[in-house]
Design brief:
The complex is a heterodimer of chains A (about 240) and B (about 425). Chain A is α/β, with parallel strands linked by helices and about 240 residues long. Chain A is built from seven helices and twelve strands. Chain A has helices spanning about 40-50, 70-75, 95-110, 115-130, 145-160, 175-190, 230-240; strands spanning about 1-10, 15-25, 30-35, 55-60, 65, 80, 90-95, 140, 165-170, 195-200, 215-220, 220-225. Chain A starts with a strand and ends in a 6-residue tail after the last helix. With about 425 residues, chain B is α/β, with parallel strands linked by helices. In chain B, about 20% of the residues lie in helices and about 40% in strands. Chain B is built from seven helices and 19 strands. Chain B has helices spanning about 1-15, 20-35, 50-60, 125-135, 365-375, 380-395, 400-410; strands spanning about 85-90, 95-100, 110, 140, 150-160, 165-175, 180-190, 190-205, 210-215, 220-230, 235-245, 250-260, 265-275, 280-285, 295-300, 305-315, 325-335, 340-350, 355-365. A ten-stranded mixed beta sheet of chain B has the order 2-1-5-7-9-11-13-15-17-19, with helices on one face. In chain B, strands 3-4-6-8-10-12-14-16-18 form a nine-stranded mixed beta sheet, with helices on one face. The chains are: A alpha/beta (about 240), B alpha/beta (about 425). The interface of A and B includes residues 70, 71 and 81 of A. Bound molecules: adenosine-5'-diphosphate and magnesium ion. Magnesium ion binds near residues 40, 41, 84, 169 and 170 of chain A.
């Protein structure tokens, strides 16, 4: 599904990703763990098509060159990024945004757009599963939402859009244990044969709830070690400083 | 220009039946205009929108005479649909229709004024031009305790029959005590290269309420100036909203004299400009007595080559204690060639007042665009969502819900 070969990324001559390679097959859950500043968000941004990086190397998504796709086309083809810091968008109603987004993706895939009622029914159901207060969806997007609500809103969007490749950039940080469980349930309910996940996290905690197939340790823009779920526990014990 | 002005003026005088006194007053205004000419940017108040140059460059020689002996056919397809309303229809400056069918006829008085007053001499040279050339002067009087059931839409329609013409319009409104009027100025131009000069005077008596919404949305290559003078007595409210978008050049000026205690003035507006348009809103809010309030919010979205300016002045007289004055402008520059100028001015001579002003401009937030695009929304649509979101709070300031919907529809904002 996703093949990253020797990806290098720079901003203003500063190297952020350094010969980064990763291979994700359909249905797999990969976790990337790394200290602050190791390049985790940069990787997520590049996968979603954010501009402003000096990039070399190759990224294949469903065997096609990802760099040829604009950000919105990547979303149409099933890539979803849950942002580490979801943005506040004043004046844009959350429901209208969600509907615009869902219908843009459906349209691009030749599917029928949902009308207002179909959409509201879908949102209702998903919001309920995530224990997301429905009333919040009539507010401006993320404006005045707490940190936890913003993160949940990302997972709500993910569950509505039903992506093939979901990238979760530190979705767990700032969540209390209840919220963490709800978020994990949301992710687990989307785990299917063809859906893949790239879960970026700082702590091992989330991985108690979402069992990854692979764990990678990212330091200074480079994967220094890969393994199974046990690697996360080892990392938790030793800390990043003593890990080599 | 001088000869043109004099011959055109004589033609207008011979066409109409002004009293001797009026003709005299008009001639004084004409002479004053001839002396001053169109305002240039050398004048402080005109430094952002040099109307003299706009006319020279975009129109050239103007013709000041319009033959109003023939009626124009009204194309009713221009009328706003889905909103029952009263109408005044101007076509090419000629008043074609006055219709207050929705109202109690004895509660509204329409007077064709014959006696000009010299109260408005020398406000600026464009008002002098208007005084000299406006061929009719209607006064609309809303009687005591009467609230118009429906809004009044003044249609400012132009057709391609006029070209390189100067048109001067004048309306006077008196809102007697405890009366109210919703007035929408709706501009639809099918002409180009004309200079349209509009002067409204409002007298708001005790407890009256005026809402004036100006909608200039359709693209056109005319130059426009509009001046609202609003005189407010005790506990009266004026709300002005300006959607400044369609014309090549448009300067809207609002002068509010808050003469009565507890009177308040709200001036809000939007500049939505593209293609080298140049617009301005200039306000003068004069707090002349105690306990008066003013509030202003202007939001701008400026595309390639366009320029907008907001000159907002709040003056507080030495006896005007407990004044509350606020103004804010925010701008999104969509292009490096677009420009926004804010010139707030506070002139405060009383000590117990609360006044503030602020201004901010910047470009569209790229991170926000990326966020929206990462959800499958294309760049154009993401931009539109952000712009509409940015404009939402100023639109929400419109207190008349019918007009708010009309303006939302005009801007293509969906619910
Ligand atoms: N826009 C940027 N400009 C300059 N440096 C950046 C920018 N974005 C990230 N960096 C730098 O790149 C490194 C990696 O950042 P990031 O990908 O956000 O790390 P992480 O998400 O792992 O904490 C950091 O040193 C950060 O300062
Ligand atoms: Mg990060």
């Amino acid at each position: 599904m996703l093949k990253i070969n020797n990806l290098n990324a720079k901003i203003d001559k500063k190297i952020i990703l350094n010969n980064f390679s990763l291979n994700i097959n359909p249905g797999e859950v990969h976790a990337i763990m790394g200290p602050n500043g190791s390049g985790k968000s940069t990787l997520s941004n590049i996968l979603s098509g954010k501009k402003g990086y000096d990039v070399t190397g190759e990224i294949l998504y469903e065997n096609k060159n990802l760099f040829e796709l604009e950000t919105e086309e990547r979303a149409h083809k099933g890539i979803f990024l849950a942002f580490q810091y979801p943005l506040e968008i004043p004046g844009v109603n959350t429901n209208i945004f969600l509907k615009t987004s869902l219908n843009a993706i459906r349209r691009a895939n030749g599917e029928k757009e949902l009308d207002a009622i179909e959409f509201l029914n879908l949102v209702k159901e998903k919001a309920k599963n995530l224990k997301f207060e429905e009333e919040k969806l009539n507010r401006q997007l993320n404006v005045g939402f707490s940190g936890g609500e913003k993160k949940k809103n990302e997972i709500l969007q993910m569950s509505i859009l039903n992506p093939k490749l979901s990238i979760l950039d530190e979705t767990d940080s700032g969540l209390d244990i209840d919220a963490l469980r709800i978020v994990a349930d949301g992710v687990n309910s989307l785990r299917k044969k063809n859906n893949s996940f790239l879960i970026i996290t700082h702590y091992q905690r989330l991985l108690d709830y979402i069992k990854p197939d692979f764990v990678h340790v990212l330091i200074n823009g480079k994967i220094i070690k890969s393994g199974g779920p046990e690697l996360a526990l080892e990392l938790e014990k030793k800390g990043y400083e003593n890990f080599n | 220009m001088r000869e043109q002005l004099v011959t055109d003026f004589d033609k207008i005088i011979s066409d109409s039946n002004f009293s001797k006194k009026d003709i005299e007053l008009k001639r004084i205004s004409l002479d004053k205009f001839i002396e001053d000419g169109f305002p240039t940017k050398k004048k402080e108040d005109w430094k952002f929108l040099d109307i003299n140059r706009a006319i020279e460059k975009n129109i050239g020689e103007l013709d000041f005479y319009n033959d109003y002996s023939f009626q124009n056919k009204i194309d009713t397809s221009y009328f706003v649909k889905g909103l029952e309303h009263n109408k005044i229809v101007f076509i090419n400056g000629r008043i074609e229709k006055i219709d207050f069918k929705s109202e109690d006829s004895n509660k509204i008085e329409i007077i064709e004024e014959s006696n000009l007053s010299n109260k408005f001499n020398n406000i600026n040279s464009l008002i002098n031009l208007n005084n000299a050339f406006a061929n009719k002067n209607y006064k609309i009087n809303v009687k005591e305790n009467y609230s118009l059931k429906k809004p009044l839409i003044v249609y400012h329609l132009t057709s391609n029959k006029i070209y390189k013409k100067n048109i001067n319009l004048r309306l006077d409104f008196k809102l007697e005590s405890n009366s109210s009027l919703r007035l929408i100025d709706y501009f639809e131009d099918d002409s180009k290269d004309n200079f349209i000069n509009i002067f409204y005077n409002f007298d708001l008596e005790k407890d009256s309420s005026l809402k004036n919404y100006k909608i200039d949305h359709k693209d056109n290559k005319n130059v426009k100036y509009s001046f609202n003078n609003i005189d407010q007595k005790e506990n009266s409210i004026s709300e002005t909203f300006i959607l400044s978008s369609g014309s090549s050049f448009f300067k809207n000026e609002v002068n509010c004299d808050l003469n009565g205690k507890y009177s308040s003035a709200f001036v809000n507006g939007i500049f939505k400009l593209e293609d080298f348009k140049n617009h301005e809103i200039k306000t003068n809010i004069n707090h002349l007595t105690e306990n008066t309030k003013s509030y202003q919010l202007i939001k701008s979205v400026l595309g390639e080559g366009s320029k907008a300016a907001y000159q907002g002045k709040i003056s507080v007289n030495s006896i005007a204690q407990k004044t509350d004055g606020y103004q804010l402008s925010k701008c999104i520059l969509l292009d490096k060639t677009s420009e926004f100028n804010a010139k707030p001015e506070l002139e405060i001579y009383a000590d117990d007042v609360k006044c503030s002003h602020g201004s901010a401009s910047g470009s569209l937030n790229e991170d926000s665009i990326f966020y929206l695009m990462s959800r499958g929304i294309n760049y154009e649509q993401a931009k539109e969502l952000l712009i509409n979101g940015f404009l939402l709070d100023v639109i929400e300031k419109i207190t008349d819900s019918e007009t708010k919907n009309l303006i939302k529809n005009t801007l293509g904002l969906k619910e």
